[in-house]
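Two records follow; treat each independently.
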Amino acid sequence: MIDSQDTLSVRHPCRLLGLDRSGLYYEPVGPDAVELALGHRLDELYTAHPHYGVRLMTRTLRREGHTTNPKRVRRLLRPLGLLAVYPKPRLSQVGVGAQVFPYLLRGLAIARPHQVWAIDITYVRLRGGFAYLVALLDWFSRYVLAWELSPSLETLPCVRVLAAAREEAGVAGEIVNSDQGCQFNSGEWIAAMEAAGSRVSHDGRGRALDNVMVERLWRSVKYEDIYLRDYGDLAEARTGLGRYFGFYNTERTHQGLAYRTPLEVMKGTPRTEPGGDR
């Protein structure tokens, strides 16, 4: 505690250092409520319409009564991790030193588990902010092998999810497909892939549907869990998502899997009776 009678008062050192005294008493605040609401709405729009670009996003928000412009929408998309989907002249370029690999799934017949894995990151809205969900699934069965919820967009959670998926499966995926985000062309990611013995596959720039199985997973988890639950914080979201992924893997049937669950397809269980959702 600083004594008001002390020769070296708060005013004096602030003057010596060229600081504004008000900065000493500043308390950081959370995300702006309006900006946060717009970010949440952009997440909903992208989930429903992954082909929407910045201009169409802007027009949609304006029709809904929001005051915004393309520059603001582009800025809000950045923390959502969606900006790369809407390339403009400079943003479409890959960073210096980044490694970009070809898309290996074009024309590939995916006929068995662990032939192709897919990994991606999506924005998860919370009542007071947001987080990022990394998930890795087996393309053939749609089984979610590993996932992690993180407060930031970094490479390390992706590397941990890759390691957890390998431990869960007991083998490495032959091919691991992702987008060209900085997490997936970084040296750390490439090194982890090489150590696992997996081949790297990257979506084409701006081609979100190249990783269509993960896009379908995001729609399912958001419409069936995140938007309905309205999680308050990371801990609550982690608990809820753990329940959802357990349900998704073992109970949720898919039309594309002949109305079987991902676990049944992973284990090679034949179809027994019709039914299910999609």
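The next record belongs to a different protein.
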Amino acid sequence: RDEIRIGDLAQNPDTGNLELREYLPGDSYPDNPYRVDPDRGHGDPRLRPWYIKAKQAGRPLWSDAYIFLGTGDNPNVPGVTYATPFYHEDGSFMGVMTADIDLLSLCGYFNEMRRSRDEQAVPQGPTSAVAFVMDGTKDSHVIAFHDIEQIMRKNPDDPSSWELIPGEELTETGLKGFYENVIEGDVQIPDEGPTEIDYTISGIAYTGLFQKLRGADMPNWLIGVTIEENEYMGRIHAILRETFLWGFLCLAAGIVVSVFVSRRISQPLQMLSMEAQAIGVGKLDEVEERRFPIREVDSLFRAKEEMKKGLRSFEKFVPRELVRELLASGREAELGGERAYLTVAFADIVNFTSISELMPPEEVVKMLSRFHGILYQSISETHGTIDKYIGDAVMSFWGAPVENPDHAFGACLAALHAQARLAEERKRIKDSSAPPIHCRIGINTGDLVVGNMGIPDRLSYTVIGDSVNLASRLEGLNRYYGTDIIVSENTYRAVSDRLIARKLDRVYVKGKTQGVFVYQLIGEKGKVEEKTLRDLQRYEEALEKYLDRSWEDSIRILEELQKGHPNDKSILLLLSRCCKFMEEAPD
């Protein structure tokens, strides 16, 4: 507000000279000027080109860049004028009203932008890229540049005044080459869209990108940027060349507008822009509560936070990776699926029905929350996706929606971690009334269909197929063999170089004509005791004897193992089967 002043030039009745009188907005115009400057009244504005042209044209127009009349504080200010003629009611000419735009602030903005860019360029050194605004006429001047001394000088005919340097006398290499090739050259300057130009001056190759200032009655200005080819070609691939120059053009094109926008508006809008980009890639973290003095900006900020709350709630019902993928792609979720080779796991609580019947509903919910929390931690840290909660059971899969070629290992590792955490949980609640939680897990790897299933108005991101059914049946087999983790042969083959498993049996499942081997997952290689490894090897020897119908040899090995593992149901099961077949061999 303090910088807004009203000025007029009027003839002093005593001296007959024009004098500049200035007023503050609150003063009584024209009787109470706060300053009178008789020394600055020598420039009659009616002789200025903008006054004459506006009067002749009879319409608003932009002037060429020139040195303002100024004041005693700052008499040498480059700028442009938007002049509008106005008339009496009878149509006779009254005068010209102007809006003067100071170009020093625009030059300062260019300088700050270049200084910031040079600081970021360390250790590469200062950049050769320069942004500028140039008059597009043949009698061209540079209107705005980061170094004011490159475009403005003392008037040779009047050292007390200043003038803009003509285009043909420019000394800055990039600008001079641009002027010679574009303004004086044969380059066609389109009214719409940017234009790229390559040129060489003083043996240095440059690339420039420029565009006309668009809009009705806008001045004939070119907004552009030039840069040495060696600079950007040495730092980026050729495929990024256009992107690099477009970035500079976007910065330069936004300068003319942003110089005249209050920081009280631009800063919160920039913050909102960054938040919107973060939301676009799925970053929904809460930010510090803020209030903004501009009501519309404050409303935008509040609405953005409400949107993030809604998206965070949405992530609790569907896989987080799926939400982030949809946000990043900009696509709406659609019905459909695709074939994929993934790993699926089912897990549920042992004897859940019996346990829950003896507990109040509130305690059942707490127990399920502890169980689901442990599984969620183990699944998420191995990049798995929880498909759904089915009562006490949890269905999950690995390899989608984010591709993961090591999905089988991730699933197995999640199962081992979950069992380890459940064991720690049982120790923690040992002395409490809470029931201990034991879990059975089945894992299978195979071809299936993954995608959005359901109806167009109600979708569920899930997996379907025989491989899913097999994983569910493997989970149930744990009850039969007394194990806690059973994996399929496909899964074991994918992880056998890193994990230890016991070949448990060959089973026949519904929908399969051939038997499939199943494995009990034991642990990671290097973390399993030698005795356990020897017992696993002996069990697999007994299983091979059993499959070869060498019942006696198998019984002998199993009886030895039973002494050290009297409660191992898988040993007892295979032993009883061998004894039965000793009496009556199968077909």
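Discussion point: The CA atoms of residues 347 and 428 lie 22 Å apart. How would you locate this feature using only the token line?
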